[in-house]
């Protein structure tokens, strides 16, 4: 058995033999997952474009066999950003306004396309049955090629998003823990859990695509010094925190379902439940702190300044 299976105990996945909705996750003779029982809807409910027709099982298997890619990527990433930060210590920060605009605009367009292509399937599963929420989290059905394609791109895009931090250090902006930790943690958890092909992953993909559809265009406009109302930035920060809270919630819900009823009750793997709990739990704390500083505390300070201005005006009138 390969180190990935040993590390994350793949063989502990209970084989489901009774539920018609849950394929069996078996380990083949090579020690890797056998995806022969995993099939997309036929005929497809959501017709793919020609470029979306990919051998998704092959790519998922490749990810499974190369489980250690995030380790190498993480080492290079940390070395690069802190190396650049050291080099830039006694230099002037680069402007990079045009480059930053193009970078954020491209990621914004990509996120919009991913959201548009994955949202119909997500809503379809969520609303087509009285137990839609449970089915959307725990039942492996309704798979379609657009979701498979954009789900794969979602994982690979996390490598590209590491470039966000490179812009920060090149421009000599303050580098915070949240900025580099969440990129590295997201890449790792997406890569390591992709082979499980769990229904709950649709939540993480759709929510992240949706938030980034607003966040990256906002950053693109800010790179051009376009003035945007403060409340719009607060909305993005609120959505980011909401994404983490919902992610933590659906993971806890499905984890309990799995713990109480096994894989026949909810198509999860215990390693995935643990990884998402750690990652989204830490994200909820870090983004909660950001929300407090940028939204709650900022509003209080703004309200205090407004009261001071009003008091000064009132005192002048009385004089």
UniProtKB/TrEMBL annotation:
EC number of the protein: 2.3.1.199
Coiled coil: none
Family membership noted in the UniProt record: Belongs to the ELO family.
Keywords carried by this UniProt record: Fatty acid biosynthesis, Fatty acid metabolism, Lipid biosynthesis, Lipid metabolism, Membrane, Transferase, Transmembrane, Transmembrane helix
Leading EC class: transferase
The protein, known as: Elongation of very long chain fatty acids protein
Protein topology in the membrane: Multi-pass membrane protein
GO cellular component, one term: endoplasmic reticulum membrane
Record field: catalytic activity: a very-long-chain acyl-CoA + malonyl-CoA + H(+) = a very-long-chain 3-oxoacyl-CoA + CO2 + CoA
InterPro entries membership: ELO_fam
Pfam family, one: ELO
């Amino acid at each position: 058995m390969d180190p990935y299976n040993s590390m994350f105990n793949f063989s502990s996945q209970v084989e489901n033999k009774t539920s018609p909705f849950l394929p069996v996750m078996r380990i083949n003779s090579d020690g890797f997952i056998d995806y022969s029982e995993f099939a997309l809807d036929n005929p497809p409910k959501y017709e793919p474009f020609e470029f979306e027709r990919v051998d998704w099982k092959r790519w998922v298997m490749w990810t499974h066999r190369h489980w250690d890619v995030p380790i190498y990527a993480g080492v290079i990433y940390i070395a690069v950003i802190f190396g650049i930060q050291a080099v830039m210590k006694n230099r002037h920060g680069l402007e990079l306004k045009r480059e930053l605009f193009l970078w954020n605009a491209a990621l914004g367009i990509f996120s919009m396309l991913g959201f548009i292509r994955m949202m119909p399937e997500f809503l379809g599963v969520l609303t087509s049955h009285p137990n839609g929420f449970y089915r959307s989290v725990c039942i492996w059905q309704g798979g379609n090629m657009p979701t498979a394609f954009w789900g794969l791109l979602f994982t690979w895009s996390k490598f590209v998003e590491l470039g966000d931090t490179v812009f920060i250090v090149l421009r000599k902006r303050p580098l915070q823990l949240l900025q580099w930790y969440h990129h590295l943690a997201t890449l790792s958890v997406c890569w390591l859990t992709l082979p499980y092909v769990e229904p709950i992953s649709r939540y993480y993909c759709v929510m992240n695509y949706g938030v980034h559809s607003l966040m990256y265009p906002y950053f693109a406009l800010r790179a051009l010094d376009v003035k945007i109302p403060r409340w719009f930035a607060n909305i993005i920060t609120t959505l980011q925190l909401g994404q983490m809270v919902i992610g933590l919630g659906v993971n806890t819900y499905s984890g309990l379902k799995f713990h109480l009823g096994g894989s026949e009750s909810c198509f999860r793997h215990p390693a995935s439940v643990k990884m998402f709990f750690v990652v989204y739990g830490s994200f909820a704390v870090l983004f909660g702190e950001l929300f407090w500083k940028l939204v709650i505390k900022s509003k209080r300070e703004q309200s205090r300044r407004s009261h001071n201005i009003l008091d000064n005006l009132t005192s002048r009138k009385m004089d």
